[in-house]
């Protein structure tokens, strides 16, 4: 049985980068979950080194060797982690430009975990109003938990770690085709008591 392929895309612009650090932590947490069932290979695609190739591709329409290999890694992955810094309440231009290079049907059905970094918690909703709709348009299967890390989260310990572990568990379950099944992440709304039944329980 061939190893599973897990790819993390990091759009961090600095070195070192908190975006890359978050991508690495998410990839390792997911790999650890998957490794309980299958051998898993991890690759991180750092877009900072592909910026010129991405720009040239948008102008000329032809990817260079490094960009082509990165696109093939992403489209051939069993699971994808996509991490971007937040600029002006949305994903970075580099992040969006990379996914513009990819054919808009190539990610259909692919399990994706979305994540982002920023200086303030106020931008955390960018996961829901920017990243999640983009991957929904690409028809990817996006894990319910997105992970946002503000500057203050890196010193908070358990809060960020807990979100990373939950998101990794969900992505691993999606990759293995077990989301919502026994032993995987359960749907929190699966066993909701109907409102009528709750009302009847209150009547004398």
Describe the protein in words:
Residues 5-154 form the NADPH-dependent FMN reductase-like domain. This is NAD(P)H-dependent oxidoreductase. Keywords: Flavoprotein, FMN, Oxidoreductase. It holds the Pfam family FMN_red. InterPro entries: CE1759_FMN_reduct, Flavoprotein-like_sf, FMN_Rdtase-like_dom, NAD(P)H-dep_FMN_reductase. With 204 residues, this protein is of the alpha/beta class. It has one domain: Flavodoxin domain (Rossmann fold, 3-Layer(aba) Sandwich). The protein is built from 7 helices and 7 strands; from the N terminus they run βαβααββαβαββαα. It has helices at 18-35, 51-60, 65-75, 93-101, 126-137, 158-175, 195-202, and strands spanning 4-10, 40-46, 79-87, 90-91, 111-118, 141-142, 147-150. Strands 1, 2, 3, 4, 5, 6 and 7 form a 7-stranded mixed beta sheet that branches. Strand 3 (79-87) and strand 4 form a beta hairpin. The longest helix is centred in the first third of the chain and has 18 residues, at 18-35. The radius of gyration is 18 Å and the shape is globular. The termini are far apart.
């Amino acid at each position: 049985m061939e190893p599973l392929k897990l790819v993390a895309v990091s759009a961090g612009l600095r070195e070192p980068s908190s975006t890359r650090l978050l991508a690495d932590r998410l990839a390792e947490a997911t790999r650890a979950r998957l490794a309980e069932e299958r051998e898993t290979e991890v690759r991180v695609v750092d877009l900072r080194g592909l910026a010129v190739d991405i720009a040239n591709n948008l102008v000329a329409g032809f990817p260079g060797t490094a960009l082509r290999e990165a696109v093939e890694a992403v489209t051939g992955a069993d699971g994808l982690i996509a991490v971007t810094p937040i600029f002006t309440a949305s994903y970075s231009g580099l992040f969006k430009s990379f996914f513009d290079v990819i054919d808009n049907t190539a990610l259909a059905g692919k399990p994706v975990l979305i994540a982002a970094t920023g200086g303030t918690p106020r931008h955390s909703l960018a996961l829901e109003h920017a990243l999640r709709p983009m991957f929904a348009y690409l028809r990817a299967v996006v894990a319910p938990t997105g992970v946002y890390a503000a500057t203050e989260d890196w010193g908070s310990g358990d809060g960020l770690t807990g979100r990373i572990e939950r998101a990794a568990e969900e992505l691993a379950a999606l990759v293995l085709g077990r989301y919502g099944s026994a032993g995987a992440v359960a749907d929190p709304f699966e066993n909701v008591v109907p409102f009528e039944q709750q009302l009847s329980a209150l009547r004398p």
